[in-house]
From TrEMBL:
Lineage: Bacteria, Bacillati, Actinomycetota, Actinomycetes, Micromonosporales
Record domain HTH araC/xylS-type: where: 232-333
Single Gene Ontology MF annotation: sequence-specific DNA binding
SUPFAM superfamilies xrefs: Homeodomain-like
Pfam families, alphabetized: AraC_binding_2 (PF14525), HTH_18 (PF12833)
Keyword field: DNA-binding, Transcription, Transcription regulation
PROSITE patterns named among the record's database cross-references: HTH_ARAC_FAMILY_1, HTH_ARAC_FAMILY_2
Protein name (database record): AraC family transcriptional regulator
Length: 335
């Protein structure tokens, strides 16, 4: 697989997918496909008003959905692992619990979620919100560039931020405009150069908006240790060529350390081993490509091979475990 080029589908190609349904199972499947596999949606009380509306746009590492259920729901999500997430209500009040912190999010305050830790949501029927997913690597690279690696991973982010004043207001307006433009057919953001710039603004704007202890004048004891350059080199290599058949020894060589040292550094600073991270990176890449592809133009095996999976049986099992559906189902849902 070494000589293969990267995925054929440009990751900055905007995608718009919408669903309006009164079927709870259909709504759950849609949210699992668009956002996360380990997601459970349970109705609370009367379902007569249930009317799910999901309007989702994807642009590279950023996914934005305008979501509402029309009835009171309990939503539980397992570890996000490869993404950071923001919920910004447009109407109503959402109650969330994550990593021991409870946040009441409404039109004045957003809730922020890190990659590690279950998320428990009470989502009332009158709550309509913007659900913003930003890939973990994209946000961490942005902060890495700005702060010369002075952070731990996952990022030590605050659990919420203000939407009425300061940078939060600007970022929320930018996300709303991004969503509206990508829902339209002929907006300026549909131009590739504009799309990539807008993507970068959303990611860098979030890095500047969320609360974190990585400023120059943070109190003693809050400053996180630097991510080792050995880890960063291995991550850079995997993100540059995720389809390459890396071994643990090869990644250790890239990092300039022994295998055991690299594995321990990854567990400490990334939360998993290098090859586990690589598999999840590939799975997310396949999922993103299948979610954007024309089912009449591609097939699952081609996409899987392109992302470095050589054993289709094991790939299909890992994909279903991560996203809750088969890869072929993801592709069929694009029809």
């Amino acid at each position: 697989m070494d000589g293969m080029v990267g995925p054929a589908t440009p990751l900055d190609t905007p995608v718009h997918i919408a669903l309006h349904t009164r079927d709870v199972a259909e709504a759950k499947a849609f949210c699992r496909q668009m956002f996360y596999g380990p997601l459970q949606v349970t109705p609370i009380g009367d379902l007569s008003g249930f009317a799910f509306s999901g309007d989702v746009v994807m642009l590279g590492p950023v996914t934005v959905g305008e979501i509402s259920y029309g009835a009171d729901m309990h939503v539980n999500i397992g570890d996000l692992e490869t993404a950071y997430h923001v919920l910004a209500p447009l109407t109503g009040t959402l109650r969330s619990r994550h990593r021991g912190a409870t946040v009441l999010a409404d039109s004045t305050r957003a809730a922020v979620f890190r990659p590690v830790g279950d998320i428990d949501l009470y989502w009332p029927g009158d709550c309509r919100l913007l659900s913003v997913k930003v890939e973990r690597a994209a946000l961490e690279r942005e902060l890495d560039a700005a702060l010369d690696q002075r952070f731990v991973s996952p990022l030590l982010l605050g659990e919420s931020f203000d939407l009425v004043d300061g940078p939060g207001r600007t970022w929320a307006a930018l996300v709303r405009l991004l969503h509206a433009e990508l829902c339209a057919e002929n907006g300026l953001i549909r131009q590739p150069r504009m799309a990539s710039r807008w993507r970068d603004m959303v990611v860098s704007g979030l890095a500047l908006t969320v609360e974190h202890p990585y400023g120059v004048d943070e109190p003693a004891g809050l400053q996180g240790p630097r991510r080792p350059r050995t880890v960063k080199r291995a991550l850079d290599a995997m993100h540059a060529e995720p389809w390459h058949q890396f071994t643990a020894a090869e990644l250790a060589s890239v990092g300039g350390v022994g295998i055991r040292v690299l594995q321990e550094s990854f567990r400490q600073h990334v939360g998993m081993s290098p090859l586990t991270y690589l598999k999840r990176l590939r799975l997310d890449g396949v999922h993103a490509e299948l979610s954007r592809s024309d089912p009449w133009q591609v097939n699952v095996s081609e996409v899987a091979y392109r992302w470095g999976f050589t054993h289709l049986g094991r790939f299909a099992g890992a994909y279903r475990e991560r996203f809750g559906v088969s890869p072929s189902q993801t592709l069929r849902d694009r029809r």
